[in-house]
């Protein structure tokens, strides 16, 4: 499969992708979307710039129940810049399909306004691990409706020392969920993390091409 139109997506979704000039899938998207759209756990490794954000945003938007105004997906990312980029991509991809509320919760930003935003509700939360854990501990966020967890740039999050936070966050999530792990590298530490948080994951690797 090379084109988004070959995927089992709604007409609205496909025309939206088209209007964003997303017609041909990148290799990581070709290899991962058939599994991720089937709600399977997945480890995807491909270098920077290969289109990993779109690869995990599409299944999230595809299964979102917009009428249920509850946090259904949690995306963990290492930095605020990256979290904001992901939130922007989600908003772009869902335009004309759903009116979704995406919230970013990052460290270095005032805490109370984030708590207030959580109180008002969101469909998707994009967060850095330390900050979302703080909201979890203060009971600001309800996690029982989360059906998808994404770890983006997992290698970078581990390099930054977020391992314990990530595990603590995951221990509070529903067991029945889809977990998608994206990384530019795949070393022993990622393998160890993956084996403790994913269930029978499909491993997708793209070596050097885009
Ligand atoms: P990665 O997370 O793998 O580093 P990104 O998700 O940031 O890569 O994507 C890099 C760039 O490629 C972005 O500008 C994105 O809009 C673009 N892109 C992603 N998928 C496609 C596609 N199928 N066709 C064209 N451009 C794409
Ligand atoms: Mg990325």
From TrEMBL:
Residues 2-30 form the DEAD-box RNA helicase Q domain. It comes from the Bacteria. This is DEAD-box ATP-dependent RNA helicase. A motif (Q motif) lies at residues 2-30. Belongs to the DEAD box helicase family. The chain holds residues 1 to 210 of 455 of the full protein. Residues 33-204 form the Helicase ATP-binding domain.
